[in-house]
Specification:
Length: 169
């Protein structure tokens, strides 16, 4: 249905920036580079399509997460990685964990909607997309997820008609 590279783009867009921004906003310390090398490398591996390695590295990074924000980035990326591995039960576990911790995470709703689309739970997918769109209206990632949803529930029929009759002049 949906190619893995497309899911990677949808699910992982801008996950690493969050931990870098947290460090950049801190006036207490100066850190050059990512604050959690395993989380950073895990996200890079996920984006590169090396999904199993990315998940493993992210799990390692989660164990040494410095604070709630790094933990949430790790949980979000694990949800994404397991979706790409088509391990939807595990992906759902991480999406729901993130939503328990932060019910305003539009990415968690987006990712969980994709799980529901892939498992043909379309009503749940629509509910999650509506909630994500309320939290972050106009997000390009959500527009793509919404189009995947619409394609799944109401696919377009081709409008092209080919006239294969030959002219006999």
């Amino acid at each position: 249905m949906v190619r893995h590279w497309l899911l990677a783009i949808i699910l992982l867009a801008s996950t690493v920036w969050a931990q870098d921004r947290e460090v950049a906003n801190s006036t207490q310390i100066m850190v050059v580079g990512p604050s959690n090398a395993d989380l950073h490398r895990g996200a890079e591996l996920l984006r590169a399509g090396r999904t199993q390695e990315g998940v493993e590295r992210t799990l390692r990074g989660m164990q040494s997460a410095a604070g709630r924000r790094e933990e949430e980035v790790a949980i979000s990326n694990l949800c994404s990685g397991y979706v790409m591995l088509e391990r939807y039960d595990e992906a759902l576990k991480y999406c729901e964990l993130l939503l328990e911790r932060n019910n305003k995470s539009w990415r968690a709703y987006n990712n969980r909607a994709l799980i529901y689309i892939m498992t043909k739970q379309y009503e749940k997918a629509n509910q999650d997309l509506i909630r994500a769109e309320e939290l972050n209206p106009g997000a390009p990632t959500l527009k793509v997820a919404r189009s995947i949803y619409l394609d799944a529930v109401d696919p377009l029929e081709p409008q092209v008609e080919i006239d294969d009759r030959r002219r006999t002049d």
